[in-house]
Write a structure and sequence with these properties.
Layout lengths: L3 E4 L3 E9 L12 E2 L11 E2 L1 H9 L13 E5 H11 L13 E3 L6 E3 L4 E3 L31 E2 L3 E4 L3 E11 L6 E10 L1 H9 L12 E4 L14 E5 L8 E4 L5 H8 L3 H13 L6
Length: 279
């Protein structure tokens, strides 16, 4: 029997089993399992309520499974379910009372600040100046656009280097929330022109993922410049979502394994202290 399952989100993946409470948008319910091994990297998992049943009956025996229900998940959904439901010592609730001033709307907010970003690629230099900034690019692209320009979503430097603005979403452990890094990623000339040409076309979501190099230095991490990514194009007007290639870099690990609320608090307080918050 095949151990694979076809998932609409993750494609052909390993099959896994969890209790029925964990999938979907559930968060903070606990994620209990045996330790993963090389032979079984995705052991069956269950929430804290099901753990009470298991413990009361002295483990999984003939009786205890009758009081729980399990469901099938792909390994990709299993990983996201684990991130959302793992309990942590520090929670986003600990940040609920923090008050901060937004760098975009200039208003004060009282809640966790989960969006930080950059308004230009690292390679955009001061000498290019405001003269080369465009608030918006004309619909369908513009063959008369200068060789060097910066808009809200696109950047070209000397008609040689091309960039798109997007989001690296980091799932926050124990929640259904994300910390979003608004960054720029490089694109090939062909992908850049293709994307601009479909600026307002809903069918652009059908474009294949585009290879990209991360083009900002996020100072809360070791050097992030030129980390390998893939840009997943969203329907207009949403910006692309960047998927980081799996590596040992801390940003990649947080993308794939989740970021803790304690780490979010550290980033948030550091950014707000330096008045760099943006939404």
């Amino acid at each position: 029997m095949s151990n694979k399952v076809q998932c609409a989100t993750h494609g052909d993946s390993e099959q896994t089993f969890v209790c029925t409470h964990l999938p979907g948008e559930a968060a903070g319910l606990g994620f209990n399992r045996d330790e993963p091994t090389s032979d079984n990297p995705f052991p069956d998992a269950w929430c804290d309520d099901c753990e009470i049943i298991r413990a009361t009956h002295g483990g999984w025996n003939e009786e205890s499974p009758q009081l729980t229900k399990i469901t099938l998940l792909c390994s990709g959904c299993y990983a996201r379910t684990r991130i959302r439901n793992t309990r942590t010592a520090v929670t986003l609730g600990d940040l609920a009372g923090l008050r901060w001033r937004c760098g975009s709307c200039d208003e004060w907010h009282t809640r966790p600040c989960l969006d930080f970003g950059y308004d230009a690629p690292n390679y955009w230099r001061k000498q290019y100046g405001e003269a080369n900034r465009q608030l918006n690019l004309p619909a369908g692209g513009n063959p008369e656009s200068p060789a060097t320009f910066l808009s809200n979503d696109y950047c070209s430097i000397e008609d040689r280097d091309f960039f798109v603005r997007g989001i690296i979403p980091l799932p926050i452990v124990g929640t259904a929330e994300r910390l979003n890094w608004g960054v720029w990623g490089s694109l090939s000339r062909d992908n850049f022109q293709r994307l601009i040409g479909m600026e307002d076309d809903p069918k652009r979501v059908e474009l294949a993922a585009m290879f990209s190099w991360l083009s900002n230095r996020i100072h809360e991490y070791p050097d992030t410049l030129n980390l390998k990514m893939h840009a997943h194009i969203q329907k207009p007007p949403q910006r692309p979502h960047f998927e980081l290639e799996l590596s040992s870099h801390p940003l990649s690990r947080e993308y794939h394994d989740g970021i803790t609320a304690e780490r979010v608090k550290e980033i948030m307080l550091g950014r707000l202290h330096n008045n760099k918050a943006s939404r």
